[in-house]
Design brief:
With 314 residues, the protein is an alpha/beta fold. It has a single domain (8-49, 58-295), classed as Vaccinia Virus protein VP39 (Rossmann fold), CATH 3.40.50.150. It is built from twelve helices and seven strands. The radius of gyration is 18 Å and the shape is globular. The structure holds S-adenosylmethionine. Residues 10, 14-15, 20, 24, 40-42, 85-88, 91, 108-111, 114, 130-131, 146-148, 151-152 line the site of S-adenosylmethionine.
């Protein structure tokens, strides 16, 4: 396992391992109280139509349905090699190799708690590594990245620098893929909000997800355009509102255990984060995109990484 703790490229343009660990290394046992049994930490995919009544909290099956959507969109069935950029606690690696006939799945994460939670095997490998530093020995058939793109560009990047980071991600992904290979991407993005007027909430950018920021759909599409064709698209704000609602109810139902694990102030911070996030999806400040891309035969080769952003480290 490589150690990205001094990863200069990530420090320059996206969330550093320290910022990632601020959020994800609160402790697996804490997240276990309110996530599904497989510990998937991203928007689920619910059967439609969604009602306002969150009584149906079939979170486990909705998370599996989300993983299924991405595996199909990435054309990953029976693939030899699949990459998961931002693999969390490994649910997608287990799903791909266990249910979709994938021979080998590699996951990247910046969280040492997450990397330690994934049991390596002949078919699963996890790397504590920034995607900017990933240099696979062989190409992949498919790439999936769920809920990680939001960490790729720091809040303080200007538009040009942000665009460069996103383009660099698509260039690297195209370079890792076999010709015609697919990338399935899930990301939150701003919807009816103009981020040029400042961050939507310093609570998010400082307390919850430091050194991270949301893209806009146009930025994603523009960055992908030279390298990929867009082949599938979903906008699922209501699905994230539902997911957050179920997480919030589960966390509140386990308040005593949560407080015993992480303390009252962290517990309260997470309940607030889930509640405020729900309101943001409800009001369409942001939405949730699931986008599948197919590598263009004409995709240009990845160039050297963009120059480091001059902003100082926190
Ligand atoms: C919200 S979690 C999503 C995890 C998982 N995909 C899921 O759906 O449960 C975001 C993940 O992205 C990873 N991540 C963020 N920035 C990254 C980077 N630059 N390189 C690799 N992984 C990164 C984090 O370590 C974490 O595993």
């Amino acid at each position: 396992m490589s150690d990205p703790s001094d990863a200069g490229s990530a420090a320059a343009t996206g969330a550093t391992p320290r910022a990632i660990e601020h959020h994800y290394d609160v402790g697996r046992e804490f997240y276990r109280l309110w996530l599904d049994t497989e510990m998937v930490y991203s928007c689920a995919l619910w059967d439609e139509p969604l009602t306002d009544d969150p009584v149906d909290d079939a979170l486990e099956s909705a998370q599996q349905a989300k993983l299924a959507w991405h595996a199909t969109a990435a054309d990953a069935d029976d693939a030899s090699r699949v990459l998961d950029v931002g693999c969390g606690w490994g649910a997608n690696l287990r799903y791909l190799t266990g249910a979709r006939g994938v021979a080998h799945a590699t996951g990247l994460t910046l969280s040492s708690d997450q990397a330690a939670a994934v049991t390596p095997s002949e078919s699963i490998a996890v790397r504590l590594e920034d995607w900017r530093d990933h240099r696979p020995s062989e190409p992949y058939d498919a790439i999936i990245s769920i809920g990680a793109f939001e960490h790729f560009a720091r809040q303080d990047l200007d538009d040009a620098a942000r665009q460069q980071v996103y383009a660099h991600f698509f260039a690297m992904s195209a370079g890792w893929l076999k010709p015609g290979g697919r990338l399935s991407l899930q990301s939150i993005a701003y919807e009816d909000f103009d981020p040029s007027s400042g961050p939507v909430s310093s609570f998010f950018t400082e307390d919850i997800f430091p050194e991270s920021s949301l893209p806009r759909l146009g930025q994603i599409i523009t960055a992908a355009e030279p390298f990929f064709r867009l082949v599938a698209y979903r906008s699922d704000a209501t699905h994230y509102e539902r997911t957050l609602h179920v997480w919030q109810r589960r966390l509140e139902a386990h308040s005593e255990a949560a407080i015993a694990l992480v303390g009252r102030s962290t517990y309260r911070r997470y309940v607030r984060y889930l509640r405020v996030s729900r309101a943001m999806f409800d009001r369409r400040v942001c939405t949730l995109y699931r986008l599948a891309f197919e590598r263009r035969p004409t995709a240009p080769k990845a160039e050297t990484p963009p120059p480091e952003h001059p902003s100082k480290e926190p």
